[in-house]
Structure formats: C-alpha cells, structure tokens
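Handout, section B. The chain below has 266 residues.
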Amino acid sequence: MIDIHHHLLFGLDDGSPDIETSVAMAEAAIADGITHVVCTPHASGRYEYKPELNQERLEALRERLGDRITLGLGCDFHLSYDNIEDALKNRSRYTINQKKYLLVEFNDFMIPQNITEVFYELTIAGQRPIITHPERNAVIQRNPERMKDWIREGALVQLTSSSLTGRFGKTAQSLSHQFLEKNWVHFLATDAHNLTSRPPKLSEGYEVLEKRYGKETAERLCVANPRAVFYGEDLPRQPRSLDIGEDDGGRPEARKGFFGRLFSRG
C-alpha cells in the first residue's frame, strides 16, 4: 500500500514532534503493510512552508530507515490567496515529488464559490488537485453536491482511511460511503499525525474497501492510483463517476483578475 498523505516529517507542524516519533511512525507504517509514504507537512498561514528544511528532514529519516520504506515529499496545501498565487508561479514547489499532483485542503468554515476556477488555473499550470478528506470538512458535509463541479473539472478525491472505520464520526463515515458508491474517490490515505489519535493505519481502511466494494477497488485506491501519483504518472483507467452530469460547455474561461473574485462569498 502507498500512503500519499502523512505528516511524518518532524518539528514542522502538528504532526511528528521529533525524529524518534517519526521513526516510530514509519515503523508502524511498515508493519501495517505500507511500502511508500509521501511526507506532507502543512503549507498554511499557521505553518510556514520551507522546502529546503523539508528536504533536510526527509534525508534524515531516509538515513535512519534505509530502504525498508520509500519516502517522498509533498505538502498539505491550504487554498489561501498567497499559496495559490505562489503555486501558479512555481509549478513544482508544492507538488508531490515535484511532479504533477497537488494535495489541496479546504478551510473548515468557508469554501469560496469560485474555487472551481482555481482548480482550472492549477490544472493548466500542470498541477492536478487532489482534494484531501472532504468527508471530514464541515462545509462539504452540509452540501456534498458541491463536489460535482470540482470532480467534473478534473479534481481527484482522497478519503482518510480512519473515516471508513468511524474514527471521525458517523457523518464522515456515511459521507465516505456515499462518495465511494458514486465512484467519486480516487485514493485512501492515513493523514497520520501521530501514533495514537491519528496513527499510520491504512490496512483497516483497505479491509473495509475490500469487504464492501471488492479487492479491485481496494487495490485501485490504496496501491495503483497512489503509485501513479507518487511517480508522477497518469492514473490508470477509472470507473465512471456517477451523478456528475454533463459538462455545460467546458471549463471556466481563464479571466484576468479572477483572484479578485476568488474569496467572494458569491
């Protein structure tokens, strides 16, 4: 299994506080059957994003762990004005392994009406968005139909493994299954932060997928699709997403000054 969302780097955000914890988290991931991990520190107003420091911490972990697990580097990209503007100027600064996939995280309290335009702009800049844990987002929980526009635009979707087991509550668990039943999901990941409340456990989610949706689905969401992302490849052919509807004439036209409208409540 391949985990594309994991706060393994130490001393950078609300994930691992020190290298010993990071090593223990990596050991737990190995024991769980995880072969690859994308280390994804937050890139947000609260946690400053420092690519050079991230790389140093990654190399320190590689030295401690050897070749028993393959580590990559990305980030948990918060959709703020400054972040988006910088990502459009620096195509590979935030992407997974400096290739073409970008983990994006919504604010828990407000999602701009014009976020579809942002996804379009990122995509034409060579950064395909992967929406992280939408099942846990309060705004989406109230209005999951908003997902349709983003998926139609080409955004991909990552659920948290522990959401399937109920760790994040019944609403997140129920919404996860609604998305899965409609083929709106492309990845399962741990979003691990520690060894206790947010552990690096992907196998339990895999088992839920295999039991309810079949082994092919479990392999696609936990192995095949994440592998493509890790190595910057195109995804294998995906099942047709249901209830998305037909595109109404194409993607939003790129218009000068769309950032000025980005955070309007519409």
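Note. Residues 215-230 form the longest helix (16 residues). Compare this with the example in section A.
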